[in-house]
Input
Amino acid sequence: MIVGICDDEQDCQFQIENLIRQQPFTENVEIILFSTLQQLSQYKKKLDILFLDIELEENSLAYLSNHKELITQLGDIVLISAYSYYVTNSYRIPVSQYLLKPMLPDQFAHVFRDCCQRYQHLRGWQKLRDEYGALWHIPLSQIIMIRSVRRQILYYDINLCIYNSTETSLTAVARKLNPYGFCQVARNVLVHLDFVKEITEKQIVLETEEKEIMLPIGKKYIETAKQQHFQYLLR
Output
């Protein structure tokens, strides 16, 4: 999980980082520090949680309202302020939680736990077996596509390693995984919308950090795929 802290006060950055390290969250947390909104906008990876100081340079809310394309990369936004006034004036951007300075450990723990629970729900996990039969718990965020081959459901991760599941119906899989960002693009193929770079009339382009994958897209799936991709980016 990648957590961003955007605050121009080093003491506040240090306090939030320490509070995060104290939380009983089992997965490794990567913490990225930003001192300016420009640094935040230049960060290329997607953040899962962002702690954002409202009084940063200019009003952070106004900045994000004018850069809506950046919001899709920020995950859960937790606004930090010394003034409760801002709690009622953030309707222009999707904010999940608020923290008032000075931050109390119990309040921080409650907010961070809520964010982590949403993160785990959106991410999801799947029990799958590799080609040697070993059982793995794979996060769905690492699955780029799912294919049905001879009534066998195959999961492909970002390295195109293949895992088997006990499922046999792609329709049932699509229904179950739709809330996690999976979309059907052919009779026997689902893709994770997080990796979609482009959808044309003939193909869908998936992108990871190392490669692009081009797949044919069925005519009857094009419009639905485009709509679901657009909605996914706005979530």
